[in-house]
Specification:
Structural class: alpha/beta
Strand order of the largest sheet: 1-2-3-4-5-6
Order of helices and strands: EEEHEHEHHEEEEEEEHEEH
Number of strands: 14
Strand content: 25-35%
Radius of gyration: 16 Å
Shape: globular
Number of domains: 1
Distance between the termini: 29 Å
Number of helices: 6
CATH topology: Metallo-beta-lactamase, Chain A
Helix content: 10-25%
CATH architecture: 4-Layer Sandwich
CATH class: Alpha Beta
Oligomer: single chain
CATH superfamily: Ribonuclease Z/Hydroxyacylglutathione hydrolase-like
């Protein structure tokens, strides 16, 4: 597997293109903006993208979704509890951060533990609420790779001061639980992964699970 990263400098947001070097099949993870620049990377490397996978619905992670979806005719996947965020221009912060309304309608609504497969790669969906109620990470166990979105950063964690929009089914978490949910997500779902697992976050540099267990000041190892 090969990983290419494009950084959207307006908010230092990481866009990942993860693909098989032999077959060229791959996915785009969190295309936050600059669709043309992302498409150039894809086309220059001859990548056959199969889907766009979203760790969460904030605008700095979804700004290029609709343009890339149309260009490559591919589905968009996110955790099912993130759908209210993606569909709400207020909840996804697009009006506040970009002054442009962005609404995303996912084609794939994941459950915790679901798998997205392409070629010989399997990405497991790990529901990690806290930063948003439908936040998710994508884990490739075979290659020891985790895409952590804004749940876990290098020696840091995601913000928890965003409101949770109402959900049609009445489920979800109240906003006052955001911090406890985030820390629980990291401790119980991410810190159980092998220490050598490479962590590729939504912002900043990469890390490893073992490093975060020892040195992340926000989370107990």
């Amino acid at each position: 597997m090969k990983l290419l990263k494009h950084v959207v400098r307006s908010m230092d947001q990481n866009v990942y293109i993860y693909f098989d070097e032999n077959t060229k099949e791959g996915v785009i993870i969190d295309p936050g903006a600059q669709a043309q620049a992302i498409a150039k990377i894809i086309d220059d490397n001859g990548i056959n993208v199969k889907a766009i996978l979203l760790t969460h619905g904030h605008s700095d992670h979804i700004g290029a979704v609709n343009e890339l979806k149309e260009k490559y005719n591919i589905p968009v996947g996110a955790h099912k509890w993130e759908i209210p965020v993606l569909r709400d221009e207020g909840a996804n912060l697009s009006l506040m951060l970009t002054s442009k309304s962005t609404v995303i309608v996912p084609d794939l609504a994941f459950e915790d533990g679901d798998e997205f497969k392409f070629n010989n790669c399997t990405l497991k969906v790990i529901h990690t609420p806290g930063h948003t109620q439908g936040g998710a990470c994508y884990y490739d166990a075979q290659n020891g790779v985790l895409f952590s979105g804004d749940t876990l950063f290098y020696a840091s964690v995601g913000r928890t001061d965003f409101p949770n929009p109402p959900m049609e089914n009445g489920m979800g978490y109240p906003s006052y639980e955001n911090t406890s949910r985030l820390l629980s997500s990291i401790e119980k779902k991410l810190f159980v992964l092998p220490d050598e697992t490479l962590v590729f976050p939504g912002h900043g540099g990469q890390s490893k699970i073992g490093f975060e267990k020892k040195f992340n000041p926000f989370v107990k190892g």
